């Protein structure tokens, strides 16, 4: 008797986000349409309680992917499923229920909250909207306890303040606390610590780990910090120009990269392993534009290993063991 295939909690299926390009180009002269391919065919799964790290250079499509998964953007094609149900269908059925299941933590905490509202008003709003707590007194008590559990003291004083009266680290903790009220199953954390002081980053990271391990939430952690992503994540996906070029466990991807782009990124990250005296690999050429990339490997024009075939056809994904794969003809070779 065959076993039923387990359904991943979050399943991204061939998601793409193409924006029409309105500038001048040779394609337009020939009557062909131009597209900016911000995300171009991403498929990936995330389990309950798992943190997936997504890394890559600025402009590679990480944040756009996060917006698609939280339905702040509707994809050009493809879909994201939560527990086997399309997020598009979830929103049609109940946008309110969807927003309680899927949450996003943005990079800049100062843009997250309405500046005219006190922290008390900001925290009470989702509790009231979702009828959490029997009355305002109970809700205020819940807010105070949540702030204190997040290391924010004195909680009563913080409740009376406005966002501009708090630090970025305090606001980011409040942003995560607000998300936790709704007990979300899936959280996208988009560069949540990049604008914060090093001294407060650990608190934010520990809150995300707690959400994953103790609350069972699936977390997509978007970052350009490879060392931090390795620390927090079970798996890492490496993005380049809208596509995932490598995926595997955090240790496999960092210790044994199989794509030339991943290897170049890691070689330029001095904090990965101070005792590892690996040679720095420079990526030649200017960062590319997502305007009509291809037809071959998008990284080929900057790749130190590119062969003639790389310019003709986008490479297939090659698995090298333990669920570790890379879209490169040299993936099976030690780099």
What are its keywords?
335 residues; Rossmann fold; globular; alpha/beta; 4-stranded antiparallel beta sheet; 8-stranded mixed beta sheet
Explain what this protein looks like in three dimensions.
This protein has helices at 26-29, 62-69, 87-93, 95-101, 119-129, 136-149, 155-160, 168-181, 198-213, 226-232, 250-255, 260-267, and strands at residues 10-20, 35-46, 51-55, 77-82, 85-86, 102-105, 186-190, 218-222, 235-240, 243-249, 318-321, 324-326. With 335 residues, the protein is an alpha/beta fold. It has one domain (10-19, 36-116, 162-271, 278-326): Rossmann fold. The strands form two sheets. The chain has an eight-stranded mixed sheet, with helices on both faces. A four-stranded antiparallel sheet has the order 2-1-4-5. Helix 8 (168-181) runs parallel beside helix 9 (198-213). The protein starts with 9 loop residues before the first strand and ends in a 9-residue tail after the last strand.
């Amino acid at each position: 008797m065959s076993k039923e295939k387990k359904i991943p909690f979050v399943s991204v299926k061939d998601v793409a986000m193409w924006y029409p390009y309105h500038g001048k180009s040779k394609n337009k002269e020939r009557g062909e349409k131009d597209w900016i391919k911000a995300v171009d065919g991403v498929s990936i799964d995330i389990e309950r309680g798992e943190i997936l790290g997504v890394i890559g250079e600025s402009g590679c499509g990480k944040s756009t992917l996060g917006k698609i998964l939280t339905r702040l953007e509707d994809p050009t094609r493809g879909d994201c499923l939560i527990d086997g149900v399309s997020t598009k269908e979830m929103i049609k059925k109940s946008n309110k229920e969807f927003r309680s299941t899927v949450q996003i933590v943005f990079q800049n905490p100062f843009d997250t909250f309405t500046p005219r509202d006190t922290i008390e008003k900001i925290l009470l709003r989702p509790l009231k909207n979702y009828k959490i707590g029997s009355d305002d007194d109970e809700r205020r008590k819940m807010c105070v306890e949540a702030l204190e559990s997040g290391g924010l003291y004195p909680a009563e004083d913080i409740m009376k303040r406005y966002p501009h009266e708090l630090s970025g680290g305090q606001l980011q903790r409040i942003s995560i606390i607000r998300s936790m009220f709704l007990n979300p199953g899936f959280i996208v954390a988009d560069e949540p610590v990049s604008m914060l002081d090093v001294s407060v980053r650990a608190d934010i990271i520990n809150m995300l780990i707690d959400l994953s391990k103790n609350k069972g939430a699936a977390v997509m952690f978007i970052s350009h910090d490879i060392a931090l992503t390795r620390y927090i994540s079970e798996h890492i996906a490496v993005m380049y120009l809208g596509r995932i070029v490598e995926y595997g466990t955090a240790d496999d991807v960092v210790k044994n990269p199989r794509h030339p782009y991943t290897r170049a990124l890691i070689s330029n990250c001095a904090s990965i392993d101070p005792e590892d005296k690996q040679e720095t690999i420079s990526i030649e050429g200017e960062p590319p534009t997502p305007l009509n990339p291809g037809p071959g490997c998008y990284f080929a024009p900057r790749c130190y290993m590119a062969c003639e075939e790389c310019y003709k056809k986008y490479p297939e994904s090659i698995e090298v063991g333990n669920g570790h794969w890379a879209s490169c003809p040299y993936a099976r070779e030690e780099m």
